[in-house]
């Protein structure tokens, strides 16, 4: 690790040994589905302009591919997908379709680069939604893929609920795709978020043993494992990650773009070509347009992700930031904050006073600290800068 990199983060000395058996692809790519699966979160509505603005922001971020929506869902979605496809973005634009000619025609008419064929593969999903036996399923999958390729589009096959599929049938499907050469990528979909990192890693390894079709990982966050599951799949050779800004998506959401990309860069040394410094701008845009407020302690982009109150923590932080942080906040467009409250110490008060340009005799600081703690207990809130100035004035 270079001296410059050491200034940005400080991770575990066990990394090299612990990660020796991992096999990341040499060109890991980000496919963002904020505009499709992200909007499927209950209560989120993106207008056409919202989608265009978010797509532009994702393109500036350096996303490889944007899954822009489902053309069959509404006229508004079709118009948005068509407009995004015509923006001349560097990012490739794809759309989700069912295994139907009319869906595929709609996607092609929107001018997208690729179509994502969504068909359920687990027994529980197929019994409830598709009513096809194995031979009929494979016939439909092949016909749909052929239609996509006939229209000059990239074909990404998304057999959803992959993590609950019967593997012999999945293997048969992959073998058939490999023979026909009409599918450019297969997406593992953890539809109900029930997989673990070990399951995702195993599934990638078994799929790669059957065919060399590139694999994408799409995980839901029902057990809080979406990021870990996505990284686990990539660590075993999957090339693509399907993520959303702020982790929005159905039920508990999807793997968070910012958390997954940062974990890859800092913890695994995998650079996905994404501009980390723009994370905050993109996150705030999606937060505003989705109406879904972030929890304060949300990793990477939460407003409190780099806020420090504990006196002992701040004392160490001021000597060496890596005593309390594994990477510098500027890496992701954030900044560090010292918060004054019940758990603060003298060092915290001194640091805050210096930051505000306030000069206070040393013998007055304990009294000011006592006032801070008392007020924080009474209000159950931290002390803001204006209130600190008032306390300093009262102490003087």
Automatic annotation (TrEMBL):
This protein is a Fe-Mo-cofactor biosynthetic component. It is an enzyme of class 2 (transferase). The lineage of its organism: Bacteria, Pseudomonadati, Pseudomonadota, Betaproteobacteria, Burkholderiales. Residues 28-280 form the Pyruvate carboxyltransferase domain. InterPro entries: AIPM/Hcit_synth_CS, Aldolase_TIM, LeuA/HCS_post-cat, PYR_CT. This is Homocitrate synthase. Pfam families: HCS_D2, HMGL-like. The keyword Ubl conjugation does not apply. Keywords: Transferase. It comes from the Bacteria. It comes from Paraburkholderia metrosideri. Its EC number is 2.3.3.14. Signal peptide: none annotated. PROSITE patterns: AIPM_HOMOCIT_SYNTH_1, AIPM_HOMOCIT_SYNTH_2, PYR_CT. Belongs to the alpha-IPM synthase/homocitrate synthase family. It catalyses: acetyl-CoA + 2-oxoglutarate + H2O = (2R)-homocitrate + CoA + H(+).
């Amino acid at each position: 690790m270079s001296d410059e990199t050491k200034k940005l983060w400080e991770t575990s000395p066990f990394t090299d040994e612990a990660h020796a058996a991992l096999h990341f692809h040499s060109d890991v790519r980000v496919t963002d589905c904020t505009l499709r699966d992200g909007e499927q979160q209950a209560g989120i509505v993106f207008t056409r302009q919202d989608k265009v603005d978010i797509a532009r922001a994702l393109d500036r971020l350096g996303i490889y591919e944007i899954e822009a929506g489902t053309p069959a869902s509404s006229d508004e979605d079709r118009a948005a997908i068509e407009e995004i496809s015509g923006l001349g973005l560097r990012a490739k634009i794809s759309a989700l379709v069912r295994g139907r000619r009319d869906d595929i025609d709609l996607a092609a008419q929107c001018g997208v680069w690729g179509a994502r064929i969504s068909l359920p593969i687990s027994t529980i999903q197929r019994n409830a939604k598709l009513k096809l036996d194995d031979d009929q399923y494979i016939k439909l999958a092949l016909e749909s893929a052929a239609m996509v390729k006939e229209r000059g589009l990239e074909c990404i096959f998304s057999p959803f609920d992959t993590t609950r599929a019967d593997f012999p049938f999945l293997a048969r499907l992959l073998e058939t795709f490999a023979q026909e050469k009409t599918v450019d990528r297969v997406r593992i979909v953890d539809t109900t978020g029930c997989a673990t990192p070990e399951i995702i890693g195993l599934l990638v390894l078994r799929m790669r043993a059957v065919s060399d079709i590139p694999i994408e990982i799409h995980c839901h966050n029902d057990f809080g494992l979406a990021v870990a599951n996505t990284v686990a799949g990539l660590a075993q050779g999957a090339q693509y990650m399907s993520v959303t800004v702020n982790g929005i998506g159905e039920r508990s959401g999807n793997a968070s773009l910012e958390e997954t990309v940062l974990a890859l860069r800092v913890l695994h040394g995998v650079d996905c070509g994404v501009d980390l410094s723009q994370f905050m701008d993109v996150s705030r845009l999606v937060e505003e347009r989705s109406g879904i407020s972030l929890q304060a302690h949300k990793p990477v982009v939460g407003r409190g992700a780099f806020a420090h109150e504990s006196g002992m923590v701040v004392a160490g932080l001021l000597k060496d930031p890596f005593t309390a942080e594994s990477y510098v906040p500027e890496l992701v467009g954030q900044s560090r904050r010292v918060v004054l409250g019940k758990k603060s110490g003298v060092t915290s008060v001194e640091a805050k006073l210096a930051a505000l340009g306030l000069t206070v005799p040393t013998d007055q600081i304990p009294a000011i600290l006592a006032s801070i703690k008392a007020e924080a207990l009474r209000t159950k809130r931290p002390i803001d800068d204006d209130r600190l100035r008032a306390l300093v004035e009262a102490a003087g």
